[in-house]
Design goal:
This is Regulatory protein, LuxR. By secondary structure, the protein is mainly alpha-helical. It has 48 helices and 7 strands. Among the domains are: about 10-180, P-loop containing nucleotide triphosphate hydrolases (Rossmann fold), CATH 3.40.50; about 200-210 and about 230-345, no CATH class; about 800-860, Orthogonal Bundle (Arc Repressor Mutant, subunit A). Helix 30 (about 550-560) packs across helix 31, helix 32 runs antiparallel to helix 33 (about 610-625) and helix 33 (about 610-625) runs antiparallel to helix 34 (about 630-635). The longest helix is centred in the middle third of the chain and has 18 residues, at about 510-525.
Amino acid sequence: MARIKSDADVLPYKVVIPQPPPWLIVRRRIVDRLRRGVQGPLTVVTGPPGTGKTMAAISWATCGAAPGPIAWVTLQRGAERPEVFWPMVLSAFRRAGVAVSGDGDPVAALALHLTERAQPVVLVLDDLSLPADCEVNRDLGRLLRDTHAWLRLVVTARQDPPLPMRRYHLAQELTEVGVEQLAFSERETEQLLAQHKVSLSQASLRTLLARTEGWAAGLRLAAISLEGHPAPDEFVAHFAGDDNSVVAYLMEEVLDAEPEDRRRLLLATSVPERINAELATELAGPVAGRAFAAMVRDNAFAMRLDQGWYRFHPMFADALRLILRHEAPGHLAELDLRAASWFARTGDVHDAVWHAARAGAWPYAARLVVDHLEIGRLLGLRPDHVLGESLRAMPECAPQPEGAPEQAVVTAAMARAGGDEETCAAALDTASALIGRSPAAASPALRLAIGLVRLADPQPRDPDLSRNLTEVEGLLQETPAHSLDQHPEVEALVLAARGSLELRQGRLHEAVAALRAAIEPATRAGGECLYRQCLGQLALAEGLRGRPARACELAAQAEQLPEAGPAGRRGAASHLASAWVALQKVEPARAKQELARAHAAVRQCPDAVMAGLHALVGAQAKLLEGLPRQALEETRQVTQGPQWLRRRLLLLQSEAHALLGETAEARACAERAGDADDLRKPLALALAALSAGRPEEAVRAVHAVLAEPGLVPVDVRLDALLLDARLAYQGGDPSRGRRMLDRALRLGDREQALMPFARSKPWLQPLLRHDPYLVRPYLRFLARLRLTPESGEERLDATLYGRLSARELDVLQHLSKVMTTEEIAAQMYVSVNTVKTHLKSIYRKLAVTRRAEAVRRAKHLSLV
């Protein structure tokens, strides 16, 4: 070590605690952190210029919270030389009342003197900047090690000092105050602004904090500019790193001190939002790649992200880009294109598009979107606002020969997502015209993108929809699997479109299969609009094919998601499904609300099929309210729609006519429905026959439905069981009636389908109120319809089923004694067959099916 001669040349103000300036804001949270830190050997405060490192140390040093004397050194240029550094340190100790000899080795002298003290001494090294391999750094580390319990070192620096910080960190003897802690909070910012008599709205305050990231110098410069400003909120909206005062400060504090090659590297690497060594090489050449590590290490405005990535403080980056624009106006666009190309090669399409757009290379930006299958994000099928914002300023593509069809497709996608169907249609026409001039140049990715935009049409008016869908499905087969895995929204859209098409054409099983398959990729895509659309249409399809429980479950899931899609569009299918479910649960008020929302959605996006389904569900609501005439009026408003939907409407009209007693019209509507494979038709004919007073014909029709060997839809089976029960009771066969009613209740309870029972209430109510044994398993289900037995009405009127003969009463008496058929026959001196005949009659008259049930019913009626 060089021998220290004297400290006479040390400037006094460099070795005393600076006086706090009048504008100093004491930030208690940082002072407390430093107070805790000096209980240990090492405290490090790091951050870029202007973050308030020195002010934080002054605040702590002047608050009287130190564990001993404070020796303060404000370092200067050349402090890395021992003959400069140690005289300043020794002078600071002396001024703090710690007399240390300057002869010999200062480290040894300090260590010896400090270890003899009763209390520790705090040494503050403000603005420390030492090369890792310098002698002073090694000696400082030795001093810290040798005076472990007596010296408390506080360092402020732009970068981590070359001290053994990891060792102290592992020993939990290191306190760090970094950029995150030094950043101003909202309350501290308000205090700073108040010093300049500036008051901002809460929104502007947060904007200013976000722009500056709490950088103290940036906030102070903004506050100075805001003093007396007539429109402070407007100023904040435009305040950034390219503000003249900020640029001047950063040039003075940072750029002017950098060598020319480092300065060029800083300017070039400021172009992207994030930077790593490879991208730095792409932007500034091979030499830059080697210099990158030193740049990010030495520049405190370079903030580490992860995996080798860094970013500049946004205000520093803004200032660098402004300087770059002034010094090399055309170079910024060139660097943006280089960055776009590099990001595209590495698979980061978002950053590639952003840089291409900033360079004004719109055809290239659009081609990146199309080639990388990102069109679904622009359609709003996946949460992503960044890509759309990058392309927001893109001009429309004119249909000139030199135009880029990709640009037209991107315009169409953004217009569709924004609800501008006129612009979307014009852009699609432009794309088709450009492709028509050179069909061979249309890549599969371009044709797929056009097809996806067409499939996303909220108004399925395209007569070539089926052909377009088939073509898109074929193109998907040619798309690499890994690309589809990265873009589940594309698969979800195509499957949803297939399901929607099948639903509109009445192929409900196929619709359910496609929509079910769309749920998984829609979930992975994370787009709530597409997911809700799939759930809503699937719920509607399940309802139409007669699966109430499944429809209820799906509709409930859809209702949990936000209603609005892109541009505030609402899906009619979801609301129709919810209305249908509300009817099944006999919630007419809620059904009306959902029907009104569905009507609004259909008006917003006209759709003949959804309009027809709205009429169908609306008419069912009218029937539930007991208004068959209004139900007819509802269905007659539909003038167009597919044949299957018109058949459904005719069958509902048939039911309404039957309820009105217009039997001829009821039968005519059912016959006009036509489709012999639809089991709803024989049910409609049965209702018409019953209304016309031909119960035998009605019974034959209903039994034919129940005997159907194939899978009968739940709603059809439920209606058939209820109608069969009604016919059996009215026809004098209460045993069958009760069996059918029990089956209907079991099925309705399982599927939570209340509507058929609500509409059958006039004939069901007297039966169920007098049959507690039948009702008991379904009390909770029937209670919602007020169809449970009431007090005083539980006793069964025997005349409802038929009186028991004397011999039948005798058989009942023996049954109650748990006798077998043979024992009863022997006791009564009759044959076994005679007893069996009596038992059948008893079961029929008591509306039961088993011995034990007959005995219970007889006891309840006081017959035994």
